[in-house]
Structures are given as C-alpha cells and as structure tokens.
Amino acid sequence: MPADYQGVAVTCPVTIPYEKRSDKSAAWWIGRALRTLIEAAGVTKADIDGFAASSFTLHPDTSVGLIDHFGLTPRFLEWIPTGGASGIMALRRSARAIQAGDAEIIACIAGDTNNADSFKGILENFSCFSTQAVLPYGGLGPNGVFAMIMRQYMEAFDATREDIGRLAVMQRANGAQNPLALLKKTITLEDYMAARPIAEPVHLLDCVMPCAGADGFLVMSEDRAQSLGLAYVTIAGSIERHNAFPGAEQLLQTGHAVDAGSLWEQASAGPDDMDLLQTYDDYPVISMMQMEALGFCGLGEAKHYVAETDMTLTGALPHNTSGGQLAMGQAGAAGGYLGLVDAIRQLTRAPLGPQIEDAEYACVAGYGMVNYTHGLCSAAAILRRP
Amino acid sequence: MSLRLQVCAECGAVQYPHRDVCGACLSTQLEDKDVSGAGTVLSWTRGHVSVFPDAQTPISLARVKLDAGPIVLALASSALITGEAVHVMRDEDGLLRRS
Ligand SMILES: [Zn+2]
C-alpha cells in the first residue's frame, strides 16, 4: 500500500466564473485564479513556492512560461497536460512534495480560454495518433470516439439511452442550484431523449459545452493551513493509472478498476461511506463507467444504481455537486479540476449552492485524454473533512 | 484484399496508428507490409456534426478489430452492425474504409 498523506492540507477552492466565449488568453484565466488563491489564503505571491498548471490553450507555453509571466520563483514546478485527470494528478504530486519538504505552498491551477480558433486548435493538435487516425475520419471530434464507447457499453450491458439520461437529468438539477453554472436550466428525461443526435448514440444533452474558465486550489501542510486559519480537507487515499488496458477490444471500464481496491484500502473506507461523488462527466456514460470501476456498483449495473439512487444535492449520494461540466460547461483542462474543487467546497462548508448536510467524505474521480480510441488517464482521490 | 500497415521486423506485431517504435517490443525496425484487411466491428457511430464545414453528414464510422491485430477506425458508406465481419481498405484519400 502506498504511504499515507498525513499532514497534507488541501484548501482554498477557487473557480473563476466560466464564460461561454473569451477573447482573453489562457494565461489571463490562470493568472486570475492565482491571484484569487493568494488572496483567499492571505499570503503573498512570494509565499507560493510550488506551482502546478494544466491547460490546452496555452501553447506554446507551459507552466514554465507562466512563472515568468507571473513573476513566480517556485522550487517545485509541474506541467500536467492530462485534461480530465489533471486535478487529481496535481493533488497527488503536490501532496508528496509537501510531505517531502520540497515546497511549502503549492498553487494548482487549470485554465483555458475558448474561442473558435482555440477549439479548432485543440482538435487539430490533440495528439499524433488522433491527428492521423481520428480527426481525418469525418472530423467528429471526441463525440465520435465517445459515441463508440457509449454504444459498446449499451450493447454489452443492455443499457438504454433512458438509463443514461437519468444521470444527466439529476446532474442538471444540481447545476440549477449553482450560481456559476452556464446552463442553469433543469432538463427532463423527455428533453434528454428528444435532443438532436450528434454522433449516435451521443445526443446533444450528453455533450458538454466548451467554455473559458479556471479552477484551482492550494496544497500545504496542515500546520500551515491551521496557522493561516484556513478551512481545509485531507487526502485519505488516491490512485492513478494510465493506459490501463492496452489494445482492449472491450472499452467497458475506466482504468480506475485496476486500483480501486488500493484506493479504498488506503482510505479505510468504502463507497458506502462517501457523502458525495464527483466523476468526470464528459459524457454521462463515462460517469457510469467510473461508478462501476470504483465499486459503487458492479460492472454493468450502473443503470440500476442510477435509477435507484437519488444523486441530487439532497439525495443519498449527491453526484457532481456543481452540476459538473454538463451544467458548468467545459473550460478545457479546468474540467479536470471542477469536481475536486467542488468537493473541497462541500467538505469545507463553502458551497456554491446548497450545502450537503454533514458531508465528511468525498470520492473524486478524473478521466481524460482520448489519444486515440479512449481516455488513457484515470485518477481518483478520497477527501476527508479533518 | 490486403491492407498496407507497418509490421515489426523483430516481433511481427502489426502497428496502427503509424508508429516510430513498435508498441509491443520497442523495436525501431518497422516495415510496411501487406496484411489482411479482414476484421470485426467492435462498435460504430453515425455522426451528424463535423468540424469540417464541407463534410457530408451523416458520417458512419466504425471501430474495427483487425484479424491482423490492431484496432482501427474506419469510415463506412453503409449501415454497420456490431460484431459483423468486414474488410477494411484504403480509399482514394488514403483513409481506412470498409470495402
Ligand atoms: Zn516489435
């Protein structure tokens, strides 16, 4: 079992309100998040001695360009270009750096801009494999790849669009209570079913809306967080796995399945102990696959689990408490931070919308990077209110 | 019907997408060879929204397991069924397509 995360505090969840389109740069969004983090913690810029960043629209810069831009002098620097898995990966690396004394306060930020050029740039330059073997095949983008994953899942487990739509409906209900959600309107199952086809069986209400925005948090020692008077959460366990199933014909599970046992063993807890669950929701079917891979229900059973479990904010297991990307929009790599940041908010009693009563434990999962046929990166963490 | 793909001279693994290093044994000895285009449809989609403004929709796209080994994405001009046996070839644009 990996070493525990004793002594590490995760604090100051920040979301720079998303905008549908932006003529600002990714650096502008990330810089605003950095300043907001510094102000939230009551520290100075010079106190930030660690920096981890993720973005898809920062090209040609990376976190190196950002520290020059922002005038930072960190002794710990990460560039985590893994989209939906980036938040938990930043958390894991930062936690170890804090434990090892390699940094005292680490700012973890993901941010992206969104305009016609930036979206096209992401699609055209996403990866060598996708540029040669996905994009020229009709230009369907991630919708086409995820449609084939969704169909395979539906056929393997006899799941219907209704089974998947129920999750989207509950999530949009959560988003309706989030003042920062770009899509605040609730939807019905009838709306979901009637949505226009994008790449069958993916329809419009399976898709996230690209937008601009940034999310971030700070990682420091518990001692430091206490001396600064900051509300924080601790890490009860975490995992990551990349390219879990090379060459798999059946893409029915996310890579979390490989290490879920370790996750729960580290946390000395199980799915039943969780007060909220955040999954990476770039397509609701992928959220269902994460529920299965993490052991909230058995393989292929998410259709029953979702039908039987109230996943709204007042339900048995609130899921994607901000409304997730389906309601907030997808601010590029910040989509990989959203669930994590909102879990910190809930556990520190600083929610954007309604507070989940007595929330002590959160499970947060990330998934990302369709290099070719499916997302290669999986990560998860259990957060706990101290 | 055959399909020209990279084959590893050391371990024989057929590669796709194009690689510089064998995905099985990390050899750099990759040679273009004719392999069978026969395969099985693993999943498929019919796409209605393309980033290419001049694309003719709907676009049928399949994920196919080739008998030769790799998994490919291939366009199709007719309806697809999961599990059906297909042949994949290169079209005039060099794209993989169900023949
Ligand atoms: Zn080889």
Describe the overall structure:
The complex is a heterodimer of chains A (386) and B (99). The longest helix of chain A has 16 residues, at 26-41. Chain A is 37% helix and 20% strand. In chain A, helix 7 packs across helix 12 (302-308). Chain A is globular and about 55 Å long. Chain A has helices at residues 26-41, 63-70, 86-100, 116-124, 128-133, 142-157, 161-175, 189-194, 222-227, 256-267, 284-293, 302-308, 324-328, 338-347, and strands at residues 8-19, 50-54, 76-79, 105-112, 197-200, 202-203, 212-221, 232-242, 276-278, 361-370, 375-384. Chain A folds into two domains: 8-118 and 212-232, Thiolase/Chalcone synthase (Peroxisomal Thiolase, Chain A, domain 1); 123-210 and 235-384, Thiolase/Chalcone synthase (Peroxisomal Thiolase, Chain A, domain 1, 3-Layer(aba) Sandwich), CATH 3.40.47. In chain A, a hairpin with a 4-residue loop joins strand 10 and strand 11. Chain B has no helices and eight strands. Chain B has one domain (2-98): Beta Barrel (OB fold (Dihydrolipoamide Acetyltransferase, E2P)). Chain B is mostly beta strands and 99 residues long. In chain B, the strands form two sheets. Chain B has a five-stranded antiparallel β-sheet with strand order 6-5-4-7-8, with no helix packed on it. Chain B has strands at residues 2-8, 14-15, 30-36, 38-47, 59-66, 71-76, 85-90, 96-98. Chain A binds chain B through residues 120, 123, 128-129, 132-141, 143-144, 147-149, 151-152, 155, 196-202, 246-247, 249-250, 372-373, and chain B through 16-18, 23, 42-52, 55, 59, 61-63, 65, 70-75, 82, 93, 95-96. The structure holds zinc ion. Zinc ion binds at residues 8, 10-11, 13, 22, 24-25, 27 of chain B.
